[in-house]
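ugh ok fine here u go
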Amino acid sequence: MSPLVQADRLEFSTRENEEVDLFERTVPRWLVHRTAVSEVLITGVRPHRRDVYRVGAQWARGHSYYGPVAGRWHDPMLLGESIRQSGLLLAHQALGIPQGQRFVTRTTSFEITEEGARLAGGPANVVLEVTLRDIRCRREHVVSFACDVLAYRGGTLIGHGYAATDCVAPAVYRRLRGERAEARPSCTVVPAAEPGLVGRGREFDVVLGVPDGEAGNDQGVHLLRVDATHPVLFDHPVDHVPGMLVMEAARQAALARLGLPHGLLVGCEASFHRYVELDVPCVVSASEPTVGELGRRGLTVEFRQGVRWPAPARSRSWTPGHRAPEPSHRPPFPQRRGGGVAVASAGAGAGAGVGVSVGVGVVWARCGAGGEAPAAVPRGGVTAEPGKPS
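structure:
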């Protein structure tokens, strides 16, 4: 471990049964690969048992991008970002991976309960119990690892997640990416889709677009809208479209496809097959929702480069062999009205250029004066709620 890493290494709190120490201050921003301190969600870490760590994450009630959903919930994307940051933190702190290594996410997922995302009178202090597993080394250097995450709020289990990551040395990464290692976004940004259709209040925060002069279509097909001036989605320079932007685009595509702009996303599962390049148009295709038992609706969003607009997406049904691995210790959530999350992990065929497949599940809820109470959130889904765009 380099002297720089040793000098910046955090003090692990070891006092038992005290979680308050996990929320006193943010961790150094370089440990979670963020430039802006305001984008650091992780606030502390301490070892729990072998290969298991308790990580503090604080979710503000008014994040500049991942703001309140329908005025009732924290944006569940904060859980996805917290999982991403906790994995990076432990990669440096627990696995000794030095600064400068490149991290490539292969799969990631999260699920959260409706109550777990509920807004309260202050920020949400969330404890992530992170288990490191599938650690692979080559010549004493870690080359890949996975994280199983259980999320607790006020001592109650509110969600879980998973991430599998490869670690690549800078020189290897440059060879891997070639001339793409210096790629930068195009200066031309495609026109935004209607913000009100995707749960957003302004065009700047919309990541779906349509070709200039087009009105889009009703088949769930859009272009990925990449605006490198966005201070949250592009916190620092990158040579490909960031994974969190891709997941946000999947969320927006699902809401638009379902006509639920104020819906609450409570589950997302993504498989990254290849990089989504900055300078190549990317077609975002949301599949026809599938309806299962108890109103379950499954939805797959695919990202393809190298196809013409409007490209009909070819979705494939989920099969067990395509699902992201699940930890053996993960406790099942209670059965709720609604269903789960399905991912179409389609391969990249000739001319298809499949970059990412993201799956979400959906359940309807009748809202309005004299209507029913909101439907219980399913394992992975969107629940409809009245309110303002996030």
